[in-house]
Amino acid sequence: MPSTLADRLFSAVVRLVAALTGLLLLTPTLVVLVVSFTGGSSLKFPPPSWSIRWYVELFASAEIIDPALFSLKLALLATLVSTTLGTAAALGIARSRGWPARLLDALFMSPMVLPAMAFSLSLLVVLNALGLRLSLGTLVVGHAIICVPYVIRMVGAAVQQLDPALAKCSFGLGASHFYTLRRITLPLISRGIIASGLVAFLSSFDNVPVSLFLADARTEVLPIKLWAILEGSLDVRVAAVSGVVVVATLVGLIVVERIAGFGPGLRSR
Amino acid sequence: MTKSKSGTLRDLLPALPLAALFLVGFVLPLTVLGALSFFQSPEFTELGFDQYRRFADDGLAFSILADTLLIGAEVATLSLCLAYPLGLVYLAAGPRLRTILTFLIMLPLLTSTVVRTFAWIVILGREGIVNSIMQALGIWDQPARLIYTWGGLILALTQIQLPLMALPLINSLIRLDPTLPKAAEGLGASRVRVFFTVILPLTRPGAVAGWLLVFAAASTAFITQSLIGGGRIILMPLYIYQQAVGEQAWPFAAALSLIFTAAVIAVVVAVDRLGKDRTAARTARLKAEAAPAASADAGIAAMVSLKPEQADIGRPNA
Amino acid sequence: MRLSRRNFLAASTAAAAFAAGITPRRALAANGIVATTYPGSFDEAFKAVVGPAFAKSGPGVSFSPLLNVDQIGKIQASRNAPPFDVVLFDEGPLNAAINAGILEKFPIEKSKSFADIPDAFRHKDGYAPVITVQLIGIAYNPKKITTPPTSWEDLWNPAYKGRVGITGLGSSLGTAFLVEIAKLHGGSETNVEPGFEALKTLLPNIGAIAPSPGALAALFQQGEIDIAFNFWNNVALLAAKGVDIAFAKPKSGAVVIRTSAQIVKNNQDPERVLEYLDTVMSLDVQTGLEASPWVMMPTNKRVKLTGANLTVANSVEDLVASNTLLDWTKFQSLRGEWINRFTKDVRI
Hints:
The complex is a heterotrimer of chains A (269), B (318) and C (348). Helix content of chain A is 75%, strand content 0%. Chain A has eleven helices and no strands. Chain A has helices at 5-36, 53-59, 62-95, 99-109, 116-129, 136-160, 164-172, 177-205, 209-214, 222-233, 237-259. In chain A, helix 1 packs across helix 11, helix 2 (53-59) crosses helix 11 (237-259) and helix 3 (62-95) packs antiparallel against helix 4. The relative contact order of chain A is 0.13. Helix content of chain C is 36%, strand content 16%. Chain C contains 14 helices and eleven strands. Chain C has helices at 2-5, 12-19, 41-55, 71-77, 91-100, 172-184, 193-202, 213-221, 232-240, 270-281, 283-290, 316-321, 328-331, 335-345, and strands at residues 33-37, 61-65, 86-89, 103-104, 130-140, 164-167, 206-210, 227-231, 246-248, 255-264, 324-325. In chain C, the strands form two sheets. In chain C, strands 3, 4, 5, 6, 7, 8, 9, 10 and 11 form a nine-stranded mixed beta sheet that branches. In chain C, strands 1-2 form a two-stranded parallel sheet. The radius of gyration of chain C is 20 Å and the shape is globular. At the A-B interface, helix 1, helix 3, helix 4, helix 5 and helix 6 of A face helix 1, helix 2, helix 4, helix 5 and helix 6 of B.
């Protein structure tokens, strides 16, 4: 195919920027990972010597493992609630063009723009007024609400690209709404759903402001625990936690790819 | 749309469960917040518009709001400029590189916001990675101040929010009918033109979705803003927080929250409209026009002269 | 993020207005009482020393380390069934908590340990006494600064151009520094104008305005700054970890911040709460907290200072005599204004 100078220049710039972007994405995590293998007892970079002692210590620290497991449970539940309800809502909104749809869309997006701290404190006041005790349930509600905008936007974008003709064809061939949804619509937007689910999961897993107010006094979530440790004591175990999370996610992505075929490329096939 | 009103409402049925959750979990708290902002003083004795008047009179509050929206827009735009090249490379890449790229894109979401603060000190510090490299290369003759600066904050926020841009954008790119750019190229258009006249318009929903997510997330990212911006860059979330903490001026903080929220929503709605306009119609038209000239291998891949795109991607798997 | 951790009062009054009239719900006392700690070394020390000691006398205690101490906000939001029974406060937030009316006075006559607490650490209005103090002095990198600093003026030494770290006024640390500097330049607790003037002349030396004291430590570690004001506990802990950091007490005295554990109104078990406070103030527990690696300053006068603590004070009573106290009641209401001023004026 003909390749002009402008074309080659364009390709070169695209690749250079992509490479730099990759570097930008990588560096902060890399720094934390490198530090997690320090032989010293503080977060000094570059590390004076190497060792895996902080990982050994981490797995012996129930005070970090317990909040981590709790955060995992919380994030899974929040993701389940927000992606299920959010996908349904995104489909409904996408089908409808009237002002009610636009209003709902704006409503579902607004947790993203309301300062999370103000939101969670107001929610706490309301829960108290309703006589509801703080529990895993209330925490899931708070987390799910802040995760919803990601689902609405990302699934919404996928739905918008659906060719409406596909659904029409399906109906035309006598398929039911449910059948069309299951066999045509959902498979086509599954990449969007999975991507939004991942983002929802990870933002719930890392959320501080909502947990700060909605977790009960005996419950600790991982990011707040990490913050607590980092503040003042610069403990290397916090870097080791990042190492574990990164590796666990990598393994998770590969397993999902192998078993379900939802690739790291978030493909649907 | 010529749908009847009842049809419109029936279409919205699937949104009802979420709407119910939001009514209790979001609208109610927001109402509480709104009610607070109409109290004259933190003692909650008198009602009035004083808090809003205070905002109007306070030049500082207004400039902080402007800065915050600006940083959101800058971070979102920078993310967009970085995400397109990343997306194009992704599109042209084989499965292995795609796996690596996906992981790379998800990576910022995997490192705790809190722990990452430390990494940025290491990267942007006086004796940090950037300064060392620039000095070693002889580009800078003395260490530049990078940390706790506007530029440093933009970079840090971009890194953290980039996944929100890249994921919807790549999703859009993948769903492009691979025959379209190929067809355009077949008709003699250059890659640059194909990008600007075919790919860019067709991936607008994804780009707009990403821009909005990043804009909203970056302007409200309280923890990242405060920890990476240091003690000197004051943006809206921190300012609201300070008002509440320092002055215990909760009504003013509530008013600020609402003004800030309204401002961000205004930007979101305005930009969102740009994205939705007739995109679907245009896609259909372009498809119809280009289909005859289509060939099997993916033209977008040629954008970066890498491997051809697997054409089955994004097709119904019926 | 101590920039806020000690004093998140955000919701206090607001929440109060809306939480009024809620049906009381008593928490079950079966799991023991709930006490707050500060995140980090405080929390570790309390879990290691106070928890086991208290459990000996009955149902134990759960610790809830609160970051942005939203303590007041959380209590106000559920006044009738507060999430905590005992809360930890620095002097500034303590005043706010008292004003918010969420604290109970301390039953002096029933207390076993109260007699061991010196006057300076007893509350003048009858609230619970101080359980530990934090000293603010000069932290410096002994590898870079070989002559130990002797006074606050040393931060202004032109040799330290770009090497000084400070934090904003959101924290007790930054606020205490501003007030102390103002006082040394002829100002007072209510007139910090000279303090702001002095900060302006410090600008060329300032290398970083850290968002929190924790970030100051990270900046030290990376060689970003060499000298800063900081808490004694933090410095001692970091030095023990091998970070190049040392502490110098300025000749005008270190600034003392008194931290107290207070009784929350409507707590679930007043007797156990008092027992808890007595345990925290007891000779055994205070001795445990004072020892390495915690090196927290005790307030029980029968505790003898040891090790690193001896380098900053001779005895518990000497803590107050040879150092400086600030009257936080005088400027609590001014802090918001100062924060705005700091935002506008202190820019590097």
